User: What shape does this take?
Amino acid sequence: MEIDAKTIEQLGQRVADARAYLHIEEKASELHKLDEETAQPGFWDDTAHAQAVSKRAGNLRETIREYESAEGLFEDVQTAYELAEEDEAFAAEASEAAARLEPMLDALELSSWFTGQFDEGDAILTVNPGQGGLEANDWADMLFKMYTRYGEHKGWKVHVLDVTYAEGLGIDRATIQLEGRNAYGMLRSEIGVHRLVRISPTDVKARRHTTFASVELLPVLPDDIEVNLDPNDVRVDVYRSSGPGGQCVNTTDSAVRLTHLPTGIVVTCQNQKSQLQNKEAAFRVLKAKLYELEEAKRAAEIEELRGERMDNSFGSQIRNYVLYPYQMVKDLRSGVETGNVDAVLGGDLDQFIIGYHKWKASQ
Assistant: This one.
């Protein structure tokens, strides 16, 4: 990018704005207090609290580090620009540094949008097929793989909690837990119905089909969030895990199904290594679902956690994925679109996630 005095001024203003909207001084003060707490004897006696404090401190430290990196790079841009007045060789250095600074400032702006109670934390994402029969089952499987790859690209930990395979093709449902900074906040953009248009691989006449799948999202609740969950209200069933066949089929009764009797909520988990791990994961999902239900009853805050529920069918989609007669993915809220469908289905979702949050912030 070309550098002039106006560009330097604009970059400087963006750095100053970032310091303000990220509340760097307040974060530094909070981090100092948390570091003092972690240094106290007996800090790890309460493991759950200690882990929560350590995670919060890590997030603060990372935000401050990212801001200081951008601030330092801006100082490099300024210095190189000033030196370029005497030696033109520094002009290229100033341009290169400014080009690296722009996306850093964009990332800082993005992180500032995640101010919700659970935005910084982990997420539980579920994909369900909608209208379209076998084609919808296959589309749900494609989305499940897309989000798994996205989490891996982000460097997040991805845990498959539950996958129920459909007969013949695709899945009936899939639930994954994504652990990473701002995972819940970022993935709120994906809540809703996703529409696929393509030549169906199951249609012998090679006709074009339209099908749907929905994405639901829940936060992984911190341990200090109280949820009214009486174990006596939960029926626990164990059964043999299912799979696509062959070695993927479990030979032990490790899968767990929880039924919350007062509400009728059912949660299954079968992809962890043991029955105990599946039970713990299922209770984590059930706790999040009950919290969502309680919030809905209290103050209609359900839309903040999962978004408005819509029919899993035509006319309610948030994003279209067209593979035929042309190739395009388009978000119907932000207007972001691309012709590189393969990259999107391979997990390249940042342009849509960032585009959604920019659109949301502008509303």
In short: The radius of gyration is 24 Å. The first helix runs from residue 5 to 21.
